Amino acid sequence: MTRSASPREKTPLEERLISLIKSRGPISIADYMADALFHPHDGYYTSQTPIGAKGDFTTSPEISQIFGELIGAWLVQSWEDIGAPKSFNLVELGPGRGALMQDALRAARLRPVFLDAARIWLVEMSGRLRHEQRRRLKIAGIAPEWADSFADVPAAPTLLVANEFFDCLPIRQFVRTETGWRERLVGVEAGHLAFTTATVPPPPSVTLPDKASARIGDIFEINEPAESLIEAIAQAFVAQSGRALIIDYGHVHSGFGDTLQSVRSHAHWPALASPGKADITAHVNFDRLLARAFAAGAAAHGPVAQGAFLERLGIAARLERLSAGKSAEEVADLFAGAHRISSPTQMGELFKALCVSSPGLNAPAGFEA
Fold first, then answer.
1. Which domains does the chain have, with CATH numbers?
2. Quick one: which of 76, 222, 51, 57 has its CA closest to 133?
3. pLDDT digits (tens, 9 = 90+) for 91-143
């Protein structure tokens, strides 16, 4: 994959979007993100290799095996909390290259009955990533099944993990103008994609803060797919026993701000430049996810900072056990990875963990008051 392109590089997807906008008018940021990330031929996740040193970003499971191992232990405990069903779905949303599931199931080998009961489902749309997941997990002796969406997973008692999945779901943005709220859109300027603003107010079905609480220029974000998904998960857990662990970066309380961002080659990239060639994300609004989960009748815990969550699950003890008998260089690598995923100055504070459960269960590990 070429890495020397400039932000003014025109991609085939950008050409198509420009043509569409010129003929039909500006599109929402949600529509732009959906195409840029998931277009069947030219979307980022369908055409690129996103994760790892040769990709554009890395994730906690890729940084340290301890991350997935601790989640594996958490899943075993959660399986017991939901009644240790003899058959259950173990679902991962957006499993990347399969590192988290591989590490989690290695840790879960301490409870063979858990592995015997688990039917593993990977929710992944990217053919490229499915190929990598199949290769990695086959080596580990794991035979998962795949689904395009959570709705495609058969109903059953369920444990679900989603690490850095909700941040890539398409958002809409609304900007406070002198005449009220207007949706922020993607249009064309000087032959390139550019932000613009709708000329008419949003429909009444869009719930926005009272305009008096916002200053001119303030931006408010809504992630409708994320909220619909958390509602579907919560409803599934009301119907049958289940628990979900959601880890992502974002904010605890609703507020104003533009969190749309893009990354390429592990560096910041203009959000509208070279669509299909760069990752695009937005901060997760945990406040709104919690509200939707509660409204659907589920229980919810957190969010808890990722560093605190991993500390409660025993990252220090696990690090000590892994370090035994290792060379000084190997120990240094283990400590560096653990520091990166747990330190407040690295990923430990910005990333947060949220748990959604069937009502009436014990408090999940790592979320104790």
1. 1-369 (3.40.50.12710)
2. 51
3. 999 999 899 999 999 999 999 999 999 999 999 988 888 988 999 999 888 89
